[in-house]
Amino acid sequence: MENTFAKLGCAKWLVEALNAMKITTPTEIQKNCIPEILKGKNCIGGAKTGSGKTIAFAAPMLTEWSKDPCGMFGIVLTPTRELAMQIAEQFTALGSSMNIRISICVGGEDIIKQSLDLQRRPHFIIATPGRLAHHILQGNEEFVNNLKRLKYLVLDEADMLLTNTFSSDLKRCFEKLPPKDVRRTLLFTATMTDQVKSLQDSAENKFFMYQTDKLDDVAVPSTLKITYLLLPEHVKEAYLYSILASEEYKDKNCIIFVNRTVNAEILRRTLQKLEIRVTSLHSQMPQKERTNAIHRFKAQAARVLIATDVAARGLDIPTVQLVINYDLPSDPDTYIHRSGRTARAGKRGEALSFITPNDVNRVHAIEERINLKMEEFDKVHDTAVIRKVLQKVTVARAESLIDMDKDGFGEKRKIQELKRATNKESGKSFRRR
Protein backbone atom coordinates (compact mmCIF):
# COMPACT_ATOMS: atom_id res chain seq x y z
CA MET A 1 0.00 0.00 0.00
CA GLU A 2 1.38 3.42 -0.98
CA ASN A 3 2.40 5.69 1.84
CA THR A 4 0.84 9.13 1.75
CA PHE A 5 0.49 11.96 4.22
CA ALA A 6 -3.29 11.48 4.19
CA LYS A 7 -2.85 7.89 5.42
CA LEU A 8 -0.63 9.17 8.22
CA GLY A 9 -3.53 11.29 9.48
CA CYS A 10 -2.59 14.73 8.12
CA ALA A 11 -5.42 17.18 7.42
CA LYS A 12 -6.72 17.33 3.84
CA TRP A 13 -5.75 20.99 3.38
CA LEU A 14 -2.20 20.18 4.54
CA VAL A 15 -1.89 17.23 2.16
CA GLU A 16 -2.91 19.58 -0.66
CA ALA A 17 -0.30 22.13 0.46
CA LEU A 18 2.39 19.43 0.53
CA ASN A 19 1.35 18.22 -2.92
CA ALA A 20 1.63 21.77 -4.24
CA MET A 21 5.22 21.78 -2.94
CA LYS A 22 5.79 18.43 -4.72
CA ILE A 23 6.12 16.62 -1.38
CA THR A 24 3.99 13.52 -1.79
CA THR A 25 5.80 10.55 -0.23
CA PRO A 26 6.70 10.67 3.48
CA THR A 27 10.27 9.90 4.53
CA GLU A 28 11.02 7.28 7.17
CA ILE A 29 11.07 9.72 10.07
CA GLN A 30 7.82 11.29 8.86
CA LYS A 31 6.09 7.90 8.49
CA ASN A 32 7.09 6.86 11.98
CA CYS A 33 6.68 10.09 13.96
CA ILE A 34 3.62 11.84 12.50
CA PRO A 35 1.04 9.18 13.54
CA GLU A 36 2.49 8.92 17.06
CA ILE A 37 2.46 12.67 17.57
CA LEU A 38 -1.14 12.80 16.33
CA LYS A 39 -1.98 10.22 19.01
CA GLY A 40 -0.88 12.80 21.57
CA LYS A 41 2.52 11.35 22.41
CA ASN A 42 5.70 13.22 23.23
CA CYS A 43 8.35 12.35 20.64
CA ILE A 44 12.11 12.09 20.20
CA GLY A 45 13.01 11.84 16.51
CA GLY A 46 16.49 11.09 15.23
CA ALA A 47 17.47 10.93 11.57
CA LYS A 48 20.40 12.01 9.47
CA THR A 49 20.48 15.52 8.09
CA GLY A 50 18.32 16.15 5.03
CA SER A 51 15.75 13.49 5.91
CA GLY A 52 12.71 15.74 6.43
CA LYS A 53 12.63 16.27 10.20
CA THR A 54 10.91 19.67 9.97
CA ILE A 55 7.80 18.25 8.30
CA ALA A 56 7.87 15.35 10.78
CA PHE A 57 6.95 17.79 13.55
CA ALA A 58 5.26 20.55 11.52
CA ALA A 59 2.66 18.30 9.86
CA PRO A 60 1.04 16.91 13.04
CA MET A 61 1.19 20.30 14.77
CA LEU A 62 -0.50 22.04 11.84
CA THR A 63 -3.09 19.27 11.55
CA GLU A 64 -4.07 19.65 15.22
CA TRP A 65 -3.95 23.44 15.09
CA SER A 66 -6.32 23.60 12.11
CA LYS A 67 -9.10 21.96 14.16
CA ASP A 68 -9.35 25.19 16.18
CA PRO A 69 -7.02 27.80 14.60
CA CYS A 70 -6.99 30.53 17.21
CA GLY A 71 -4.51 31.80 19.77
CA MET A 72 -0.93 30.67 20.41
CA PHE A 73 -0.59 26.97 19.65
CA GLY A 74 3.10 26.04 19.51
CA ILE A 75 6.69 27.15 19.93
CA VAL A 76 9.67 25.83 17.98
CA LEU A 77 13.05 26.53 19.59
CA THR A 78 16.19 26.22 17.51
CA PRO A 79 19.84 27.18 18.11
CA THR A 80 20.44 29.63 15.22
CA ARG A 81 18.67 32.60 13.70
CA GLU A 82 19.03 31.30 10.16
CA LEU A 83 17.45 27.97 11.03
CA ALA A 84 14.59 29.75 12.83
CA MET A 85 13.89 31.79 9.71
CA GLN A 86 13.99 28.72 7.49
CA ILE A 87 11.52 26.85 9.73
CA ALA A 88 9.26 29.90 9.79
CA GLU A 89 9.30 29.98 5.98
CA GLN A 90 8.22 26.33 5.87
CA PHE A 91 5.39 26.86 8.38
CA THR A 92 4.23 29.93 6.46
CA ALA A 93 4.26 28.09 3.14
CA LEU A 94 2.42 25.06 4.51
CA GLY A 95 -0.22 27.13 6.34
CA SER A 96 -0.75 29.91 3.80
CA SER A 97 -4.21 28.66 2.78
CA MET A 98 -5.27 28.73 6.44
CA ASN A 99 -4.13 32.33 7.12
CA ILE A 100 -1.53 31.13 9.57
CA ARG A 101 0.23 33.72 11.74
CA ILE A 102 3.92 33.08 12.45
CA SER A 103 6.18 35.15 14.68
CA ILE A 104 9.97 34.92 14.34
CA CYS A 105 11.70 35.72 17.60
CA VAL A 106 15.48 35.89 17.14
CA GLY A 107 18.37 38.14 18.12
CA GLY A 108 19.57 40.94 15.89
CA GLU A 109 16.07 42.09 14.94
CA ASP A 110 14.01 45.03 16.24
CA ILE A 111 12.99 43.93 19.74
CA ILE A 112 10.09 46.39 20.02
CA LYS A 113 8.63 45.25 16.71
CA GLN A 114 8.97 41.64 17.89
CA SER A 115 7.26 42.45 21.17
CA LEU A 116 4.29 44.00 19.37
CA ASP A 117 4.14 41.00 17.05
CA LEU A 118 4.08 38.58 19.99
CA GLN A 119 1.23 40.51 21.61
CA ARG A 120 -0.89 39.84 18.51
CA ARG A 121 -1.10 36.19 19.53
CA PRO A 122 0.61 34.43 16.62
CA HIS A 123 -0.37 30.80 16.12
CA PHE A 124 3.26 29.64 16.14
CA ILE A 125 6.42 31.22 17.49
CA ILE A 126 9.76 30.20 15.95
CA ALA A 127 12.51 31.37 18.26
CA THR A 128 16.04 31.15 19.52
CA PRO A 129 16.11 30.55 23.30
CA GLY A 130 18.01 33.71 24.22
CA ARG A 131 15.64 36.13 22.54
CA LEU A 132 12.50 34.32 23.71
CA ALA A 133 13.85 34.33 27.27
CA HIS A 134 14.43 38.07 26.97
CA HIS A 135 10.83 38.67 25.87
CA ILE A 136 9.58 36.54 28.75
CA LEU A 137 11.70 38.54 31.20
CA GLN A 138 10.54 41.87 29.75
CA GLY A 139 7.16 40.77 28.39
CA ASN A 140 3.78 41.96 29.53
CA GLU A 141 1.36 39.83 31.50
CA GLU A 142 -0.88 39.09 28.50
CA PHE A 143 1.99 37.58 26.49
CA VAL A 144 3.15 35.40 29.39
CA ASN A 145 -0.42 34.22 30.01
CA ASN A 146 -0.80 33.29 26.34
CA LEU A 147 2.36 31.17 26.56
CA LYS A 148 0.72 29.13 29.32
CA ARG A 149 -1.95 27.96 26.85
CA LEU A 150 0.46 26.49 24.29
CA LYS A 151 -0.16 22.91 23.18
CA TYR A 152 3.26 22.09 21.65
CA LEU A 153 6.92 22.74 22.38
CA VAL A 154 9.51 21.65 19.80
CA LEU A 155 13.28 21.54 20.33
CA ASP A 156 14.87 21.35 16.89
CA GLU A 157 18.56 20.38 16.85
CA ALA A 158 17.83 19.16 20.38
CA ASP A 159 21.35 17.84 20.99
CA MET A 160 22.71 21.38 20.72
CA LEU A 161 19.91 23.04 22.67
CA LEU A 162 20.36 20.62 25.59
CA THR A 163 23.87 21.85 26.32
CA ASN A 164 25.11 24.32 28.91
CA THR A 165 25.18 27.09 26.29
CA PHE A 166 21.39 27.31 26.28
CA SER A 167 20.51 25.89 29.70
CA SER A 168 19.72 29.14 31.55
CA ASP A 169 17.63 30.55 28.69
CA LEU A 170 15.72 27.28 28.29
CA LYS A 171 15.00 27.19 32.01
CA ARG A 172 13.54 30.68 31.86
CA CYS A 173 11.37 29.74 28.88
CA PHE A 174 10.16 26.44 30.35
CA GLU A 175 9.06 28.13 33.58
CA LYS A 176 6.40 30.08 31.67
CA LEU A 177 5.15 27.23 29.47
CA PRO A 178 2.35 24.79 30.37
CA PRO A 179 3.35 21.86 32.62
CA LYS A 180 4.89 18.81 30.96
CA ASP A 181 1.77 16.72 31.46
CA VAL A 182 -0.35 19.33 29.66
CA ARG A 183 1.78 20.27 26.65
CA ARG A 184 3.28 17.92 24.05
CA THR A 185 7.08 18.03 23.78
CA LEU A 186 8.84 17.09 20.53
CA LEU A 187 12.62 16.76 20.20
CA PHE A 188 14.33 16.28 16.83
CA THR A 189 18.01 15.85 16.07
CA ALA A 190 20.52 14.40 13.64
CA THR A 191 22.84 13.56 16.54
CA MET A 192 21.31 11.28 19.16
CA THR A 193 23.37 12.19 22.23
CA ASP A 194 23.13 10.40 25.57
CA GLN A 195 21.45 13.48 27.02
CA VAL A 196 18.69 13.32 24.41
CA LYS A 197 18.27 9.54 24.81
CA SER A 198 18.03 9.82 28.58
CA LEU A 199 14.78 11.77 28.27
CA GLN A 200 13.01 8.71 26.85
CA ASP A 201 12.81 7.00 30.21
CA SER A 202 12.15 10.11 32.25
CA ALA A 203 9.64 9.07 34.88
CA GLU A 204 7.70 12.32 34.65
CA ASN A 205 7.58 12.73 30.86
CA LYS A 206 7.43 9.58 28.71
CA PHE A 207 8.52 9.87 25.09
CA PHE A 208 7.91 7.83 21.97
CA MET A 209 11.35 7.50 20.39
CA TYR A 210 12.22 6.84 16.77
CA GLN A 211 15.58 6.91 15.08
CA THR A 212 16.63 5.60 11.71
CA ASP A 213 18.35 2.21 11.84
CA LYS A 214 21.89 2.47 13.13
CA LEU A 215 21.78 6.26 12.98
CA ASP A 216 25.32 6.57 14.28
CA ASP A 217 26.63 4.19 11.61
CA VAL A 218 25.10 6.15 8.73
CA ALA A 219 25.99 9.62 9.91
CA VAL A 220 26.59 10.76 6.31
CA PRO A 221 24.51 9.69 3.30
CA SER A 222 25.86 7.25 0.72
CA THR A 223 25.46 9.93 -1.97
CA LEU A 224 28.10 12.09 -0.27
CA LYS A 225 31.69 11.83 -1.50
CA ILE A 226 34.20 12.43 1.31
CA THR A 227 37.60 13.82 0.25
CA TYR A 228 40.65 15.51 1.78
CA LEU A 229 43.54 17.67 0.58
CA LEU A 230 46.78 17.72 2.59
CA LEU A 231 48.49 21.11 2.33
CA PRO A 232 50.52 23.71 4.28
CA GLU A 233 48.55 26.41 6.11
CA HIS A 234 50.04 29.34 4.16
CA VAL A 235 48.77 28.18 0.73
CA LYS A 236 45.18 27.33 1.69
CA GLU A 237 43.72 30.43 0.01
CA ALA A 238 45.57 29.68 -3.24
CA TYR A 239 44.28 26.12 -3.35
CA LEU A 240 40.77 27.27 -2.50
CA TYR A 241 40.74 29.77 -5.35
CA SER A 242 42.18 27.20 -7.78
CA ILE A 243 39.42 24.74 -6.93
CA LEU A 244 36.59 27.30 -7.17
CA ALA A 245 37.92 28.59 -10.51
CA SER A 246 38.62 25.15 -12.01
CA GLU A 247 36.58 23.74 -14.89
CA GLU A 248 34.99 21.10 -12.69
CA TYR A 249 33.82 23.43 -9.92
CA LYS A 250 33.47 26.89 -11.51
CA ASP A 251 29.69 26.56 -11.88
CA LYS A 252 28.95 24.65 -8.68
CA ASN A 253 27.36 26.15 -5.59
CA CYS A 254 29.61 25.79 -2.58
CA ILE A 255 29.61 26.43 1.17
CA ILE A 256 33.03 27.01 2.73
CA PHE A 257 33.21 26.51 6.50
CA VAL A 258 35.75 28.28 8.71
CA ASN A 259 36.24 28.19 12.48
CA ARG A 260 36.63 31.94 13.09
CA THR A 261 34.72 35.00 11.94
CA VAL A 262 37.94 36.76 10.95
CA ASN A 263 38.77 33.94 8.53
CA ALA A 264 35.32 34.25 6.98
CA GLU A 265 35.85 37.96 6.40
CA ILE A 266 39.37 37.56 4.99
CA LEU A 267 38.21 34.87 2.56
CA ARG A 268 35.13 36.80 1.45
CA ARG A 269 37.12 39.91 0.65
CA THR A 270 39.95 37.96 -0.98
CA LEU A 271 37.67 35.92 -3.23
CA GLN A 272 35.68 39.04 -4.14
CA LYS A 273 38.89 40.67 -5.37
CA LEU A 274 39.51 37.51 -7.40
CA GLU A 275 36.06 37.91 -9.02
CA ILE A 276 34.34 34.97 -7.37
CA ARG A 277 30.61 35.60 -6.69
CA VAL A 278 30.78 35.20 -2.93
CA THR A 279 28.91 36.14 0.22
CA SER A 280 29.47 35.33 3.89
CA LEU A 281 27.60 34.45 7.06
CA HIS A 282 29.00 34.90 10.56
CA SER A 283 28.13 36.32 13.97
CA GLN A 284 29.78 39.73 13.49
CA MET A 285 27.39 40.60 10.67
CA PRO A 286 24.18 42.55 11.44
CA GLN A 287 21.10 40.34 11.19
CA LYS A 288 19.88 42.12 8.05
CA GLU A 289 23.16 41.32 6.29
CA ARG A 290 22.99 37.70 7.49
CA THR A 291 19.48 37.35 6.08
CA ASN A 292 20.49 38.99 2.80
CA ALA A 293 23.48 36.65 2.49
CA ILE A 294 21.24 33.58 2.76
CA HIS A 295 18.79 35.02 0.21
CA ARG A 296 21.60 35.88 -2.23
CA PHE A 297 23.02 32.39 -1.96
CA LYS A 298 19.65 30.69 -2.33
CA ALA A 299 18.91 32.83 -5.40
CA GLN A 300 22.39 31.97 -6.75
CA ALA A 301 23.32 35.65 -6.98
CA ALA A 302 26.34 34.37 -5.05
CA ARG A 303 27.55 30.86 -5.80
CA VAL A 304 29.90 30.64 -2.81
CA LEU A 305 28.90 31.09 0.83
CA ILE A 306 31.67 31.41 3.42
CA ALA A 307 30.33 30.63 6.86
CA THR A 308 31.13 29.85 10.44
CA ASP A 309 29.08 27.17 12.18
CA VAL A 310 26.01 29.42 12.34
CA ALA A 311 25.26 27.76 8.97
CA ALA A 312 26.28 24.23 9.93
CA ARG A 313 22.92 23.02 11.20
CA GLY A 314 19.63 22.49 9.48
CA LEU A 315 19.90 24.93 6.58
CA ASP A 316 18.30 23.36 3.53
CA ILE A 317 19.64 24.82 0.28
CA PRO A 318 19.11 22.11 -2.36
CA THR A 319 21.54 23.65 -4.88
CA VAL A 320 24.64 23.09 -2.73
CA GLN A 321 26.93 20.62 -4.51
CA LEU A 322 30.19 21.12 -2.62
CA VAL A 323 31.07 21.72 1.03
CA ILE A 324 34.66 22.70 1.83
CA ASN A 325 35.97 22.48 5.38
CA TYR A 326 38.57 25.22 4.99
CA ASP A 327 39.18 24.87 8.73
CA LEU A 328 38.58 21.41 10.14
CA PRO A 329 36.24 21.39 13.16
CA SER A 330 37.41 19.91 16.46
CA ASP A 331 34.10 18.07 17.00
CA PRO A 332 33.35 15.20 14.59
CA ASP A 333 29.60 15.85 14.94
CA THR A 334 30.16 19.39 13.66
CA TYR A 335 31.83 17.86 10.60
CA ILE A 336 28.71 15.73 10.05
CA HIS A 337 26.39 18.72 10.29
CA ARG A 338 28.56 20.81 7.96
CA SER A 339 28.79 18.03 5.39
CA GLY A 340 25.02 17.60 5.61
CA ARG A 341 24.51 20.90 3.78
CA THR A 342 25.01 18.94 0.56
CA ALA A 343 23.88 15.49 -0.70
CA ARG A 344 20.43 16.14 0.78
CA ALA A 345 17.27 14.17 0.00
CA GLY A 346 19.08 11.61 -2.16
CA LYS A 347 21.08 14.09 -4.25
CA ARG A 348 24.82 13.72 -4.80
CA GLY A 349 27.39 16.01 -3.21
CA GLU A 350 31.00 16.28 -2.10
CA ALA A 351 32.59 17.30 1.21
CA LEU A 352 36.25 18.31 0.83
CA SER A 353 38.42 18.98 3.89
CA PHE A 354 41.66 20.98 3.89
CA ILE A 355 44.07 19.10 6.15
CA THR A 356 47.21 20.68 7.59
CA PRO A 357 49.82 18.69 9.55
CA ASN A 358 48.20 19.90 12.79
CA ASP A 359 44.85 18.33 11.84
CA VAL A 360 45.81 14.66 11.77
CA ASN A 361 44.19 13.75 15.10
CA ARG A 362 41.00 15.53 14.08
CA VAL A 363 40.88 13.56 10.84
CA HIS A 364 41.18 10.27 12.67
CA ALA A 365 38.40 11.26 15.07
CA ILE A 366 36.11 12.23 12.17
CA GLU A 367 36.80 9.01 10.24
CA GLU A 368 36.07 6.95 13.32
CA ARG A 369 32.83 8.85 13.95
CA ILE A 370 31.49 8.51 10.38
CA ASN A 371 32.88 4.99 9.94
CA LEU A 372 34.44 5.98 6.61
CA LYS A 373 37.90 6.78 5.25
CA MET A 374 38.37 10.03 3.36
CA GLU A 375 39.61 9.77 -0.22
CA GLU A 376 42.48 11.96 -1.39
CA PHE A 377 41.36 14.91 -3.54
CA ASP A 378 43.21 14.82 -6.87
CA LYS A 379 41.66 17.59 -8.97
CA VAL A 380 44.28 20.29 -8.26
CA HIS A 381 48.05 19.79 -8.59
CA ASP A 382 50.77 21.51 -6.58
CA THR A 383 52.88 22.93 -9.40
CA ALA A 384 49.88 24.36 -11.21
CA VAL A 385 48.70 26.18 -8.07
CA ILE A 386 52.09 27.63 -7.21
CA ARG A 387 52.84 28.72 -10.78
CA LYS A 388 49.49 30.20 -11.75
CA VAL A 389 47.71 31.70 -8.77
CA LEU A 390 49.80 31.93 -5.60
CA GLN A 391 51.10 35.46 -6.19
CA LYS A 392 47.71 36.77 -7.35
CA VAL A 393 45.95 35.31 -4.31
CA THR A 394 48.65 36.55 -1.92
CA VAL A 395 48.24 40.12 -3.21
CA ALA A 396 44.43 39.91 -2.94
CA ARG A 397 44.71 38.66 0.64
CA ALA A 398 47.13 41.44 1.63
CA GLU A 399 44.79 44.06 0.16
CA SER A 400 41.89 42.51 2.07
CA LEU A 401 43.76 42.74 5.37
CA ILE A 402 44.50 46.42 4.73
CA ASP A 403 40.82 47.06 3.93
CA MET A 404 39.73 45.26 7.09
CA ASP A 405 42.12 47.37 9.15
CA LYS A 406 40.69 50.58 7.63
CA ASP A 407 37.13 49.37 8.27
CA GLY A 408 37.90 48.49 11.89
CA PHE A 409 36.67 44.93 11.48
CA GLY A 410 36.32 43.22 14.82
CA GLU A 411 36.32 46.36 16.98
CA LYS A 412 32.56 46.31 17.65
CA ARG A 413 32.73 42.65 18.62
CA LYS A 414 35.62 43.30 20.97
CA ILE A 415 33.65 46.00 22.78
CA GLN A 416 30.63 43.71 23.08
CA GLU A 417 32.73 40.86 24.43
CA LEU A 418 34.43 43.08 26.98
CA LYS A 419 31.02 44.16 28.21
CA ARG A 420 29.90 40.59 28.63
CA ALA A 421 33.30 39.39 29.86
CA THR A 422 32.87 36.16 27.96
CA ASN A 423 34.20 34.37 24.93
CA LYS A 424 37.60 36.05 24.91
CA GLU A 425 38.85 34.11 21.92
CA SER A 426 36.19 35.36 19.55
CA GLY A 427 36.97 38.93 20.66
CA LYS A 428 40.45 38.87 19.16
CA SER A 429 41.09 41.01 16.11
CA PHE A 430 42.78 39.66 13.02
CA ARG A 431 46.08 41.31 14.08
CA ARG A 432 46.41 38.73 16.84
CA ARG A 433 46.42 35.76 14.47
UniProtKB/TrEMBL annotation:
A motif (Q motif) lies at residues 3-31. GO terms for biological process: endonucleolytic cleavage in 5'-ETS of tricistronic rRNA transcript (SSU-rRNA, 5.8S rRNA, LSU-rRNA); endonucleolytic cleavage in ITS1 to separate SSU-rRNA from 5.8S rRNA and LSU-rRNA from tricistronic rRNA transcript (SSU-rRNA, 5.8S rRNA, LSU-rRNA); endonucleolytic cleavage to generate mature 5'-end of SSU-rRNA from (SSU-rRNA, 5.8S rRNA, LSU-rRNA). Residues 239-385 form the Helicase C-terminal domain. Signal peptide: none annotated. Its EC number is 3.6.4.13. Residues 3-31 form the DEAD-box RNA helicase Q domain. Residues 34-210 form the Helicase ATP-binding domain. It is an enzyme of class 3 (hydrolase). Residues 413-433 are annotated as: Disordered. GO terms for molecular function: ATP binding; ATP hydrolysis activity; RNA binding; RNA helicase activity. InterPro entries: DEAD/DEAH_box_helicase_dom, DEAD_box_RNA_helicase, Helicase_ATP-bd, Helicase_C-like, P-loop_NTPase, RNA_helicase_DEAD_Q_motif. It catalyses: ATP + H2O = ADP + phosphate + H(+). CDD domains: DEADc_DDX49, SF2_C_DEAD. One of its GO terms (cellular component) is cytosol. Its main location: nucleus. Keywords: ATP-binding, Helicase, Hydrolase, Nucleotide-binding, Nucleus, Ribosome biogenesis, RNA-binding, rRNA processing. It is found in: Nucleus. PANTHER family: ATP-DEPENDENT RNA HELICASE, ATP-DEPENDENT RNA HELICASE RHLE-RELATED. This is RNA helicase. The lineage of its organism: Eukaryota, Fungi, Dikarya, Ascomycota, Saccharomycotina.
